[in-house]
Design a protein that fits this description.
Blueprint lengths: L8 H7 L22 E11 L4 E3 L3 H18 L4 E3 L6 E6 L9 E5 L3 E6 L2 H14 L8 E10 L5 E7 L7 H13 L4 E5 L1 E2 L2 E2 L7 H7 L1 E2 L3 E2 L6 E2 L4 E2 L4 H13 L3 E8 L4 H6 L28 H14 L7 E5 L6 H5 L1 H10 L4 H18 L3 E5 L12 E4 L4 H8 L4 E3 L2 H4 L21 H5 L10 H4 L2 E6 L9 H8 L2 H10 L7 H17 L12 E6 L5 E6 L6 E5 L10 E2 L4 E2 L4 E9 L2 E11 L8 E4 L32 E4 L3 E12 L2 E8 L11 E6 L6 E6 L6 E8 L4 E9 L17 E9 L1
Helix pairs in contact: 2-3, 4-6, 8-11
The structure holds acetamide (ACM) and zinc ion.
Length: 762
Amino acid sequence: MKKTLLCLASAAALWGCSGSQQTSAPKGKVSIIPMPASISEKADSFLLDKQTVIVATNESDKKTAALFNAWLKELTGYELAIKDQGDKNAIVLHTGKDTTNAEGYTLNSDHNTVTINGNSNSGTFYGVQTLIQLLPVEKANAMYIPGVSITDAPRFAYRGLHLDVSRHFFSVEFVKKYIDLLAMHKMNTFHWHLTDDQGWRIEIKKYPRLQEISSKRKETMAGRYADNKYDGKPYGGYYTQEQVKEVVQYAADHFVTVIPEIEMPGHALAALAAFPNLGCTGGPYETGTHWGVYDDVYCAGNDSVFLFLQDVLDEVLPLFPSKYIHIGGDECPKVRWQKCPKCQARMKKEGLKDEHALQSYFVQRMEKYLNSKGRQIIGWDEILEGGLAPNATVMSWRGIEGGITAAQQKHDVIMTPGEFCYFDHYQSKSPNEPLAIGGFLPVNKVYSYEPVPTELNADQAKYIKGAQANLWSEYIGNNDYMEYMVYPRACALSEVLWSPKDKRNYDNFVERLKVHVKRLELKKVNYAKHVFEVKGAVTENGKGGVHVTLSSQLEGGKIFFTTDSTAPTPQSTPYTQPISITHAGTIRAQVFSDGKPFGNEFSQTFIFHKGMGKKITLAAAADKSHSPASNFAMVDGIEGLASYDDDGQWFGFKGINMEAVVELDSIQDIHGVGINTVNLKSDWIYPPKQVVFSVSDDGKTYKEVYKQTAFTQQGINKVRGKLQQVRGRFVKVQMQNFGKIPAGAEGAGNGAWLFADEFIID
Ligand code: ACM
Ligand code: ZN
């Protein structure tokens, strides 16, 4: 059959048919991250081809047009002419002078033109970022831009990403890419953490020893902190002032403000290594080689310290036009100050009641200096201790409390709580994850973050200027790993910060992310794939058994699995329907894209018994803090692991007994019963006094069939009773709680925890 062009009304909406447009060109999906404030789609669409022109009438918009061209060239191989006027087959950029919401814009596209009206040059830039996301992600000669009408502006003024270049150094080229990606997600602040114990990374011409000594360390921690192992390799790097200027200009072209952080009074060991006179003890010091917090900090009693830092800032300020300078302020131990005659003399002279007040003195003195130069300071939330500097902005990282306190004191706040904003935390519990600092922060948790604490009233909430994710680089030693930690979590954060609160919807975000990752691929970003990797859900199968449902959100992905513990390949069994568990073993599954594995595999080990998936009733519910999603977890064929707190299997009963009944389909032979429990007294988890199993035909009259009273194993105890000539339909387990924790033990006087999982009936 000849290809015919169907242009019925509905098909037109679907395919973007309009007049005589070519139909071979791909059409962009409306799939924008962060979600615009308001968007409506039209049946119409705009055909972009070689003849299309960009109209831009000022220097800034011309630069923005050139950035659009750079993206387009990747897709089409050509760039569009940038002209001063035109109204047909044109992308028209208009920029107004609305300073009330400078970053807002409107975008309208139809078959004639795409018109972007920015409230200011930054608004126009964001309109163009949206336009880029309206392009298809396939390479083509010509392409359709869907017809839309968008009115958009950010929810928060401060939308940031931080990068620690001290623990590991990142090249100028990488930093530019980092900024480019940040801007692509309509974020506007890059917090450059330039100095720390393990390396000073910015050239200061007056103090060449910062380059010679402080930018270098003799070796680096290898593996986990607790391993206390080192790689024996010298490490170093710093940015010249010319390179800094280049980065700051690049950022400005992308409407990103760079905020430098020069840490004080703590995290200063690299500087002390070059200038030991600036420490309380006089040294000698060497640039830090292990992670964590060092006791040696700048001496707060020595005026040379303030003069040194002022000299440093005198060279820093001309490089960074930002209103804000970050002065650190976090994790400053006070032990040296407590013993230092100079520090103690300062406290006496200034009437400071303790070392926290001395830290406050330090920060306020530096604030005064920076204010005198027309700048404002930002500090980590420790700057609240001992009294907040009068004009300081607080970055709340140790939870949200610092942010709440600062907002209540009418200070501006940037939220960066570890639980939601520390992208150095793990994204998955898979054992295949690369080593990270700890914590668990998957994409959906980032997406769920609400920066304005409910504790604040409407007036106080105005002080929450936005939020930022932090990338501490102790364990993140190369570009690929850094990108893996940032994306797509930063995509999620961008939507938290830009989109209206009521527009946020995680499922919808994931749908858009499916398209968006193709853009990240075009930018050669090594993004993490957890959102799309295969997931498994273990549930009751509707027939009194257990099955595993596998799924993946990967567009075009195919899932293969094995049941014999071998690694899944595209030659393994293709997944078509839930897999019933019929024997003990391990299900391993992987989603493949074009024959290549995508993300981590799913792996779940099962035992097998006849109670699995059967009706189970608990006499008393487990404590809310240690309660699996449903009672089914007690008979799902999955035994709780030694990481007992974390695997969603263990039922915890605080100070009370546990009793459960499983109802089989019929009266039948029962060859064995069992249950697992935990003996971990240091964690207040005590084995039961006794475990009793009994059996019944009718669920009313029970006969005891097995009893155990000793549980001597440290950790998990597997209670197992072999039975002979026992028949029944109902099986009951009763576990007697240990009772009160005895005197002298951890948690004495509290009710002991009783842990139970997997009620086994053979
Ligand atoms: C910090 O994470 N020490 C601010
Ligand atoms: Zn001192």
